Amino acid sequence: MIGNIEHLLNTTNDVFQKNELKSIFGQIAAVAQILWDRGWAERNAGNFSINITGFFNAAELDRLSFYPFQPLAKRYPELARTVFLISGTGTRMRDMANNPFENVCCVFVSDSGSAYHLVDDNAAGLSAKPTSELATHLAIQQQLLQKKSLEKVVLHAHVTELIALTQLPPYTSEKAVNSLLWGMHPETILFLPEGVGFIPYTIPGTEDIAVATLKGFEHHKVVLWEKHGCMTVARTLSEAFDNLDILAKSAKIYFLCKSTGQEPEGLNNMQLKEIRDYPQAEPPVYKKPDFSI
Question: Is 159-277 a CATH 3.40.225.10 domain?
Fold first, then answer.
């Protein structure tokens, strides 16, 4: 955990005296519960990172550099002096939902981008450590900054319906997957008009899958890993879940149709074009929800 975050949020330690963080932790708890209930984060599956640098001024960032640091295997120069909330390694979403403070860690990337400070007031050293996918998260977060993107969140989950879809040989290419997902429900092309990136099966946790994922995020907000799961980027953790939820709904509609013994008709190309071109078919402005706890 981030030491005793409740203590940090309500004492003279001004680094964490921020109401925005309370809302973010509330959002973490809410999304973690849904991921667990959906079966998209079995055992200790699923992880996320949230860039919260904007909540800190320069003096507060200076203070974070006094916490113990760990060297990184790779340098991330664009991430210098950035702050992230990151899911802890080995943590379970069901536990995250009950107590996000105990299962999330706070990371401050050093001035050089070659190390990170674990922001923690727990002298016993019992705090959560960053997810084993830390390097992948940092690489994606760096790419978002390079693109000057509004997205601050990276979420990985094992979305059952999407994994099942990529178990079917006809849907093991980017073109085929997007054609199906767009065709099953208008909301999919409305909110994810760029579709999803697709990565043929690659051993999880390798440099190969990390490189392929970065390439996928060059033009997509969601990247689907064949037979494994997916990652998405978004402005908030709640919005990141929404991205996955929309895709899962399309996949579920497909499987429900197939369960009747019928082949789903799907939206045709003309109907999809009408949705794309319709002037009022723009996604609404995302309003930040209040998840304060």
Answer: yes
